Amino acid sequence: MTSVLVANRGEIALRIIRACHDLGMRAVAVYSDVDRDALHVRAADAAYPIGRAAPKESYLNAARLIEVAKRAGCDAVHPGYGFLAENADFAQAVAAADLVFIGPPATVQRLLGEKTAARRVASEAGVPLAEGTEPLRDVAAARAAAKRMGYPVLLKPAAGGGGKGMRAVADESEFAAAWRGATGEAMTAFGAPALYVERLVPHARHIEMQILGDARGEVVWLGERDCSIQRRHQKLVEESPAPTVDDELRGRLGVAAVKVAKAVRYTNAGTVEFLVDGDGRFYFLEVNTRLQVEHPVTEMVTGLDLVTLQLRIAGGEPLPFAQGDIVRRGAAIECRVTAEDSFGGFLPAGGIVALVREPAGPGVRVDSALFAGMTVPSEYDPLLAKVIAHGRDRAEAVARMRRALDEMRVAGVPTALPFLRYAMGEPDFLAGQYDTDYVPTHWPPAERGDLPDGAAAAGALAAVLAVRSRTERRAATPTDTAWARAAREDGLR
Amino acid sequence: MRYEVTLDERLVRVELTPDGRFTIDDRAVAAEVREIVRGWLWSVTLDGESHEVTLLGHDPMRVDVNGTEVRVAVVDERAARARGGAPRAGSGRVEIRAPMPGLLKAIHVKEGDAVAKDAPLATLEAMKMENELRAPAAGRVTKIGASAGTKVEGGSVLVVIASE
Known about the structure:
The structure holds two protein chains of two kinds. By secondary structure, chain A is α+β, with helices and mostly antiparallel strands. Chain A has four domains: 3-102, Rossmann fold (3-Layer(aba) Sandwich); 131-199, ATP-grasp fold, A domain (Dna Ligase, domain 1, 2-Layer Sandwich), CATH 3.30.1490; 205-442, 2-Layer Sandwich (D-amino Acid Aminotransferase, Chain A, domain 1); 453-487. Chain A contains 17 helices and 22 strands. Chain A starts with a strand and ends with a helix. The mean pLDDT of chain A is 93. Helix content of chain B is 4%, strand content 60%. Chain B has a nine-stranded antiparallel β-sheet. The longest helix of chain B is centred in the middle third of the chain and has 6 residues, at 77-82. The two termini of chain B are 34 Å apart.
C-alpha cells in the first residue's frame, strides 16, 4: 500500500492525509465545487474535483470516487467518518475494484450496519441490550410497541447512526409528530424510512469502547469515552476515562465490546456504544464500523495513532501489541467547535471566517480545517475544529482545555465556543456529574456573568472603534449608485 | 464624540476626544489601543491591564473580550438623542431570518397569529438537519416572508413578529 484516496473533506480528510504522510504514503484528496480552496486539498499530494456541493453529487458518489482512485494510481481508499464510511455497498465496490478499503469489510458492515441486526449479534454474544423492537414501518404497530414497553421511548432509524433521525418521545400524545419527523429525517439521511422503538434509559450516560481488530482475528479494546454531552443527540464534548467508569466496569465493557467484535470477525478500528445507567448496568447500543470523530481522545490517553494503525491493519499487518501492552495515561477531553449559535439553540450558520486563532501549548492538540477567508458551506456537517486537551489527571486536562478555549478565536460565524467555555467551568461538569440531559438542563445559563470593569471598558472602546472603522470604510468605497438605490427601494415595495 | 455601548446587559459610556484621548463613564483613562487585524482585532492596555478584543460578527454585533463572548450595541449620542433617550428594549419589529441557506420544510404560523416566546415558527432543513426556528419574543405575526417547500437564502426574512 503506497497511495491512499481520502474520500472525505474537512478536518478528518486532513487527519488522514497526515497519517499517510507519517507512513511515507501518498495522499490523494477529492473535493466538491465549494471545497476547492479547502485545507485538505492543499495538504494532499494530488487533488481531484468530484462534482457539485450537494453530497449526493460528490462525496456520496461512490462510482466517481472509485474512478478517481484508479485514475490517480491509488491502491487504497480511506472513507473517514460520515458520507460513505458505513456504506457496505461502497466497501464492496472498493474491494471489487482491487483497492484496499481502510475499515471493516462489507460483510462485517452488513452484519452491524442495520441497527436491529447488530442488536441480534450482541444478544447472541451474551451482551445485554435495552428493550427494543424490530424495524417498523407502520405507526400503529410502533405506537402499540411503545405502549407495551412504557414511555419514555426512543425512535431510531434502523439504517444508520450518528443521532440523525433519532427522537425521544415522552408520552403517547407526542408519538405521531415524532414518528413523522423521524421517518422524514431517516429518509433524508439514510434513504430508508424504517425505525425501531427502544426503551429510553433515563439519565443514561453514553459510553463507547474503542476496539481494533486485525486479519488474524485478534481484537483488543483500548479504553472508553464518555460522550454524554450532546445536543440533538449529537456529541459536543467527549472524554476518557469516563468520570463514572472504574477499572472493574471498564474491563467488563472492554470484554463485552471484544465479544461483539469477535462474533462478526471484526477487523480494523471500530467503536461499540453502550448506555450505562446510574447503577453501573450497561446496555449495548450499536457498533460504529468506522473511525469516530472523537478518536483523538483515545489517542491522547493511549499514545497510539489510530489512523496509522488503520492503514497498517488494512495493509495486512498484525496488531503490533497485545491487550496487556496497552497503557492508558492521564485523562483527555475533546470539545467540538461547530459553526452553531450557542445562544440560538445551536442552529447551524454558514458564513465567511474572518479570523482564526487556534490554541496551542502543553497537552493541547487541534484537529481543524479552519482558515481565515474560508466560506463555511451549508451543505455539510457544521464541525469546524476539534480541540483536544490531555493532562496527568482530569483536573489538569480540564484546566488545559479551559485555557485552550480561552485562547481560541473564530470570527465571522457563530460557534459553540461560548457553550464549551461555560461547560469547562460549570460545577456539575467539573464534578463529572452529567448525563445525556446535560445541555438542555444547563444551557443557556440563567445569568450571563458580567465582564470585569477593565474588560468591559476595553470591549466598549474597541466596539466603538470597530463601528467607526466600518462606517469610514463604507464611506470611502462609493458603492451606492442611483441604480442601486432605485433597486433597493423597488425591493421594499 | 460620545457613545453609549451596551455589552450584554451592561452600559458603558465612551467618549473619543478630538485630541485622540478616551474617557470611560466620564473618567479619563490611560488607554493604548492597537488595531492588530484591521477591522477585527484590537489590543487594549488600560490602567496597566492587557485586554484583547475580537469582533466576531456584525449583525447582531458580537465581540470576544479576553475569551468571553458578549453581544454589543453601539449608539452614538446624536442617534440616542434622536431616539428620545433610553434605548427601547424588547419591543417592536422582530425579523426571524434563515441563519443559513436551506429548504424551508414548514411554516407553523400565519399572519395575525399570536405567538408565545420560543413558539416554533418554521422548520428549515440545512446541514443535513431539520432546524426548528423559534420566536425570540412573544408577539403577533405580521408577515410571512417565504413559503413552505421553497429554497431560501441565508439571511432571508421568513417571519416578522410585532413583539409585545
